Structures are given as C-alpha cells and as structure tokens.
Amino acid sequence: GDARVRSQTGVLSERRGSYPFIDFRLLNNTTLSGEIGTRKKVKRLLSFQRYFHASRLLRGIVPQASLYLLDEDYLGQARHMLSKVGMWDFDIFLFDRLTNGNSLVTLLCHLFNVHGLIHHFQLDMVTLHRFLVMVQEDYHSQNPYHNAVHAADVTQAMHCYLREPKLANFLTPSDIMLGLLAAAAHDVDHPGVNQPFLIKTKHHLASLYQNVSVLENHHWRSTIGMLRESRLLAHLPKEVTQDIEQQLGSLILATDINRQNEFLIRLKSHLDNQDLRLEDAQDRHFMLQIALKCADICNPCRLWELSKQWSERVCEEFYRQGDLEQKFELEISPLCNQQKDTVPSIQIGFMTYIVEPLFERWAQFTGDTPLSANMLNHLRRNKAKWRSLLHKQHSSNRSNDHSGQVTGSQEQTLNEEETP
After folding, report:
1. Tell me, what DSSP letter sits at residue 234?
2. Measuring CA to CA, which of 154, 170, 279, 313 is 20 to 30 A from 322?
3. Where are the active-site residues found (predicted)?
4. Is residue 62 part of a domain?
C-alpha cells in the first residue's frame, strides 16, 4: 500500500537519501551520544520519509488521540480555550499541553466544524480525524521549531486572518478549507534543515525538485499522499479533488521565503492600483497565499511571551544545523553560527527585512483593522525589546573584552542592567 500511494503521488518511495557522508541521526539528537533506538526511527531520520501506517488504517483502526484520555479538568480548559480560538493572544503552547500534544488535530477538528466545512463537503468525521492524525504524526517532534505545534500556531493565525472582513465577505467554503489545510500541512515532514543544506549535501529531494522550492514541494506532495491515502475527499468528483490538490500546492509553495519579493511586489502593485477584485477566484487565491505567508511568519507579531519562545526555538534549530555543518566540515550557513549569530541580531534582521514589509502591506489590505493594528504594535514592541537585549549583549562583550576581565564596578552595572 505505502509504495503504491507514493508512486501515485510522485513522492519518492522509501529510499535512503544520497548523503555521501552525513549520518542524519545527528539531526535531531543533541547529545550526539547513544543509539537512536528502533530501526524504523533510524530509517526515518536517514531519509526523512513518512510512514503512512497504511495497514492499520486499511483495517479501519482509528488512532486514538490522547486528548480523549485526559481528565475532565484538562478537557474543560481546552474547550474553554477553543471558545476563544479567534483571539490573537491565543497561547498555542498552553493549548498543546492541555491536549497532551494533540493541538493540531484538536484545533482542526474544531475549526472544520466552526466553519461548517464538515456539513458542506459531507466529510466523514472518522476519516477527517484519521487524516489529521496522519498530518500531525508526520511532523518531527524533535524539531525545536518546525513541528506540529508550529503548524497549529500557523493554523490558528490563518483562522484569524480568514475572519478579517475585507477577506471574509468573499470567501467560499472551498477557500476556507484550502486555507486551513494548507496552514496545517505547510511544513509537514520538515527535516529541521534548510534548502541550501539539502542542496550542498546532494539530498535526493534536492535532485527530485531541481533545487527549486525543495522543502515546499516535499510538503505539498506529502500532503497529497495523505489526502489520497486517507480518502478524505474520495467522495467528491475527480475534477474537484484535482483542483484542490493543485491549489494546495500553490498555497504551500508560496511559503518559500525565496519568493518573498515576488509576492510583495505583486501585492504592492495591486494595492497601489486598487485593482484587487475578490469576487474573482484568482485574486482571492492570491490573498490566501498572502494570508498564509503572514501566518507562517507571524511569531514576531505575537505577545512577547509567545514571540520570544518561538524566536529561541527557531534559532536553536538554526544552531543545530550549524553544528552539523561544522562537524562535517561544511561551510556554516548564514544565521546558523551560534558564536556569531545571536538570537537578538537574527530576530531584528528578520523583523526588519521580512516581517515588517509584509505586515505593513497586509494592514494596508485589511484597512487597519483592530487585528492588524494589534499585530503591528506587538511587532514594534518586540523589535524594541530585541534591540535592548542586543545592546546589553554588546555592553557585556565590551566589558569582558577589556583586559579579559570584568571589574567589580562593571559587574555591578551589568547585574543592574539584567534586573527587570
């Protein structure tokens, strides 16, 4: 079953990657000592291909989400959080703990119901649950950043954006389903390393996709594989499912950061010319792409307590890649050198050159709604906090560099600076 599904979707059958020398067990093993465990886990890390659990699914055995095994107190808190799922201060880390690591499955089941998608598309709840479990399990929990909690966070943000009046007034059920599915699956089976790493290590996915949007193509193809295997949309006409698959691809591929300028220039042109016609399916799809791009990089626009956690997680993932590159005497990628690339400096650059230009245009599109104003305010405050932390780091480094020691008075000053 697995091999047939893979060949049908154009996804590689389970084969080891073409790394000439890198042992990918090191990717998600920070201790770098001790054995990885089962043969299946080694095989997964070597090729980071997914395991479909097809035999279980074909026998009709539904994986049980741990949510339903939690005590009533946790369930009550999770339900209470879901009642406020449209609020921008939604704490996805807390929600993931309350659902025992099932934030993505629980959130999507709720949102599909809230938006009336189950009724509109006549979806089977058991099949929907199977599909969502497959998606959630296909994320690598070992990744500090690109994991199922990130996918849930992006999905919650996408839900907020889909409710913005400028967009919501024109969206069809198909648009909403595509937006939520793309958000949930946009980073599925992410290996925790970036495209340049895959290219320079001659990974088979880089070859398969000719070094273009390598990860995004893989996320899309994996999603199609899971959709077809779960048969979630099998009752719909073939032309409808084919259209859904292609549009999912267009949305997921838009998250490639290398295409940022392409989308920004196009959005700026539409806004300057005031020629967006959201009655037109093509224009609606473009704004769904923009919404997903915003959702994917919205961490700097969250509350500081949440934003800081995400910043530290993504930098930890960068540093792990840098450590791997150093170990195998490869050139360390930009932002991946822990000795030179600090979290504050990485975040300030990211906010300045990537996040701010996109969210300022998004606010222009939405018409400065409360949500857009709130996000931009968080963004500016968070950037100021990172600048303050960067200044403290520089002050600390200068003090330590002076004669190799810190004097008593300097130490007192530094301690005072660190006091909240």
Report:
1. T
2. 154
3. 146
4. no
267 within domain boundaries = yes
Do the beta carbons of residue 198 and residue 205 sit within 8 Å? yes
C-alpha R_g of the chain: 22
**C-beta neighbour count of 111 within 10 angstroms:** 23
**Quick check: is 139 in a domain?**
yes
> Does pTM surpass 0.85?
no
The reply, when asked if residue 147 is annotated as ligand binding, is yes
Give the whole-angstrom CA distance, residue 305 versus residue 98. Answer: 18
Positions marked active-site: 146
Residue ranges making up the domain that contains 274? 73-395
DSSP character string of 314-367: HHHHHHHHHHHHHHTTPPPPTT--TTT--HHHHHHHHIIIIIHHHHHHHHHHHT
Q: Give the dihedral sign, CA 324/327/328/330.
A: positive
Q: Is 85 annotated as a binding residue?
A: no
Structural domain includes residue 378: yes
Closest CA to 263 of 291, 243, 239: 291
Handedness of CA 26, 29, 30, 31 (dihedral sign): negative
Q: Residue range 64-82: average pLDDT? A: 70
Q: Is 148 annotated as a binding residue?
A: yes
CB 320 within 8 A of CB 27: yes
CA distance 251 to 363: 20
Residue 340's CB is within 10 A of a number of other CB atoms, namely: 11
Number of independent structural domains in the chain: 1
Averaged pLDDT, 234-246:
98
CATH number at residue 294: 1.10.1300.10
- Does 371 have pLDDT greater than 80? yes
Cβ 156 vs Cβ 108: under 8 Å: no
